[in-house]
Design a protein that fits this description.
Rossmann fold; alpha/beta; globular; single chain
């Protein structure tokens, strides 16, 4: 069975806001059934789901902490029971703490960032492979990991811990793509740069995009919709020969 004949079901972690929400809405407009994962804001997640359903597709919201194994397993099981077999995972959930130098970072902060951004990405990818791999009776699919330009810029004096977790996501992308290439699963990553989303405000610097835009060759921040378009391309048949790729979407930065 080719990928194009499969039902299209997309699970998006961190799907209630920002890049995740934009991806959910664009996926629904393109005919994907969508599972929106979130951890806290039920209202925001349900609003995204309502907009997806308005596009004529099936959609649901599931509250789960991606750093908790039992939450993730239950989420994948609930999604499959409601929407059918998964054909795309968008590994988007991530957290960012206020700007800090490494010398001032607590172990508690580091553990939380690593648990969500790295452990969470691994657990979700594992569960997706267990269900999609042809070795396990699945019919294939794709995984799109949302990394960051921080993985190659380093984010000194700001978020080196976050940048390091995204470096781990890059390595996960490359290694897993090779591991499952013969099992009808493609794995790719996107590396957004300065994107105008709520994550900057939550980290205490709501003006960060405007402040740093002059350092971007294109002289502006990007939008969540622009990143979502790239994610949808990597999830689609249009990228059928693309795997193990890390695609920068950073305005040249």
């Amino acid at each position: 069975m080719t990928e194009s004949t499969l039902p299209r079901v997309m699970l998006i972690t961190g799907g209630s806001r920002g890049i995740g929400a934009a991806t959910a809405l664009k996926a629904a407009a393109d005919g994907w059934d969508v599972c929106v994962n979130y951890t806290a804001n039920t209202q925001a997640a349900e609003e995204v789901v309502a907009q997806c359903r308005a596009a004529g597709v099936s959609a649901m919201a599931i509250r789960a902490d991606v750093a908790v194994e039992s939450d993730v397993i239950e989420m994948f099981d609930e999604s499959e029971a409601e929407l059918g077999p998964l054909t795309c995972l968008v590994n988007n959930a991530g957290i960012l703490h206020p700007m800090s130098r490494v010398e001032d970072m607590s172990v508690e902060r580091l553990r939380e960032v690593l648990d969500v951004n790295v452990l969470g990405a691994f657990i979700c990818a594992r569960e997706a492979v267990r269900r999609m791999s042809t070795n396990n009776g699945g019919t294939g699919g794709s995984i799109v990991n949302v990394s960051s330009a921080a993985s190659y810029l380093g984010s000194p004096n700001e978020f080196i811990d976050y940048a390091a977790t995204k470096g781990a996501v890059d390595t996960l992308t490359i290694g897993l793509a090779k591991e499952v290439a013969t099992e009808s699963i493609r794995v790719n990553g996107v590396r957004p740069g300065l994107i105008d989303t709520e994550i900057h405000a939550s980290s205490g610097v709501p003006d960060r995009v405007d402040r740093l835009a002059p350092n971007v060759p294109m002289q502006r921040g990007g939008t969540a919709d622009e990143v979502a378009d790239l994610i949808l391309y990597l999830a689609s048949d249009a990228s059928s020969y693309v795997t193990g790729s890390l695609v920068n979407i950073s305005g040249g930065r």
